[in-house]
Specification:
- With 331 residues, the chain is of the alpha/beta class.
- 39% of the residues lie in helices and 18% in strands.
- The strands form 2 sheets. The chain has a 9-stranded mixed sheet. A two-stranded antiparallel ribbon has the order 1-2.
- The longest helix has 23 residues, at 13-35.
- The N and C termini lie far apart (70 Å).
Length: 331
């Protein structure tokens, strides 16, 4: 085989292939070298960042809770965040508040819902907007004409929020990456929520790996996805039962189910805890714990690690901070 290459005359197939490989290697080296940024430019970038956030309490996308925003600065672009809790504590309701308040700020929100249907999610967000009990909406049990009219008024407002939902099951990281790539190209996503991690499907080539390895690969894939597309990705995660064996029954970082990679890859980890669901029915003041919850910031790369109590309205599937009206929306 004779291949003509500019300036090199004729060469056989082997030489031509070798020449092509060398050119590809040089190109790769150039790309790698161009990837580095000098410290002088990094310092300039740091100055710009400090100037941008100097007078802002919220430097990222709102968490939906004013006190939590003040403590964390919000969800940052390129970050992966875990919301962990035991079953039935209210992870999806907590996510709903985050989604609703972000969308009210005109943040474009994407949701991969592997547990609830799009109808259930729409009913939850409508409940937040209208302050009507979730079950009344989902089961179509509105009280009277006045409540019905108010419901339609609020759901009309909800319909105009920049929220998009996919409730397709059997989704893996490759599917999510394809979805995000399309949405990002069209400018239709600022933040992504995944409900929830353990329901993500596994790539065919990972079928024989143990569950910890599978979850670890998912975790790393999500983190890289957030970084590549420069958006925050918030992932709900199920916690193991070990957390309930501690004295206060509150979850710790090692309770992240099935993989330590979650703790390592995450830029922030928030645990949601309710004493009521753990069998602790009264607090230290001998009051019922039915309507209270704990937000536990177990890890935050750019904020403090702490915890505080918030209120919970089970009928409306709504979390809200003390002092905040139940029907108020934080801006």
């Amino acid at each position: 085989i004779n291949i003509t290459s500019s300036g090199m005359g004729k060469m056989d197939g082997s030489e031509a292939m070798q020449n092509i490989v060398q050119k590809i290697q040089k190109l790769q080296e150039k790309i790698v070298i161009d990837d580095f940024v000098g410290m002088d430019q990094l310092v300039v970038n740091l100055y710009k960042h400090m100037d941008e956030v100097k007078d802002k309490e919220l430097s990222g996308i709102t968490t939906g809770f004013s006190r939590l925003d003040a403590m964390t600065g919000g969800f940052q672009n390129g970050g992966m965040y875990i919301i962990g809790a035991r079953p039935s504590v209210g992870k999806s309701a907590f996510m709903g508040k985050m989604v609703y308040n972000a969308a009210r700020r005109n943040i474009k929100v994407g949701i991969i819902s592997l547990e609830m249907t799009d109808n259930q999610l729409a009913a939850r967000i409508s409940s937040l907007a209208s302050d009507i009990e979730y079950w009344r909406i989902f089961r179509s049990r509105l009280i009277d004409e006045q409540q019905t009219q108010m419901f339609y008024k609020k759901t009309h407002e909800v319909s105009e929020l920049p929220i998009i939902i996919s409730d397709k099951t059997g989704v893996d990281i490759s599917d999510i990456k394809a979805k995000v790539a399309r949405l990002k190209k069209r400018g239709k996503i600022d933040i992504l929520f995944i409900d929830y991690l353990q329901l993500l499907d596994t790539d065919d080539k990972d079928r024989n790996a143990n569950r910890e390895q599978q979850v670890g690969k998912m975790s790393r894939g999500i983190k890289l996805l957030a970084k590549d597309y420069n958006i925050p990705i918030v992932v709900l995660a199920q916690l193991n039962r070990i957390s309930e064996q501690s004295a206060d029954k509150k979850p710790k970082l090692h309770n992240l189910r099935e993989s330590g990679s979650l703790e390592q890859d995450a830029d922030g980890v928030i645990f949601l805890h309710r004493d009521w669901m753990s069998g602790i029915k009264e607090n230290e003041n001998n009051e019922t714990t039915e309507h209270e919850a704990d937000i536990i910031i177990a890890k935050w790369r750019d904020g403090e690690v702490t915890e505080y109590k918030i209120s919970f309205d089970g009928a409306r599937m709504k979390f809200f901070e003390f002092g905040e009206k139940q029907d108020a929306v934080f801006f």
